Amino acid sequence: MSANFVRMPRAAARTRFWVFIAVLAMAAAVMACGSDETPAPAEKPAAATPKMAAKATPPPAPDIPSNVSVAERDAEGNPIRFSGTDGSGNAFEASIGDDAKVPSSFPADIPLYPGAKPMAAMVAGGEGQMVTFKTQDAQQKIYEHYQTELKAQGWEIGDEQSFGGQLALVGTKDKRKLTVSISGTQGDSRISLIVVDTP
Predict the structure, then answer these.
(1) What is the predicted pLDDT for the residue at 132?
(2) How many structural domains compose the chain?
């Protein structure tokens, strides 16, 4: 029983780390949605006593773990580049938003979806890597693409799931585990690729 208590803090830290990364990906989705919106035509003001316009309230800052530091923020104050340590104490770097790029070390045998734009990226030594994309293609089309392309690259497809409007599949190869998650709405899909080393 004592051995379990020794491992729990590390597992908990690792879980918090990956939850934080998932939140970053969702934040990138929100930022991207906002940037694609077309402003509505301005309405003609009513002939009434002028009132001072209410100042827009910026979104609350995300809950950033103590082991993570913000390297850069955008014009609205949203964090877009991070660095720090993961749940196992290994250094990592992450970015979200329009400046996100696929890491040069991202495995070549994991296909990137054609025409998709990166929204978030993360590299954590000893843990793995994550890249999130957006595309206008339908979720089912993306799902079938990864089923075919991953098998062609030698990945063994295991779990395949569909829940809450999200599709997911898991592949394994050479002591690595890849999770492909596909979500979004019609004409606005999100693809998350998370690859981790396994014992």
Answers:
(1) 94
(2) 1
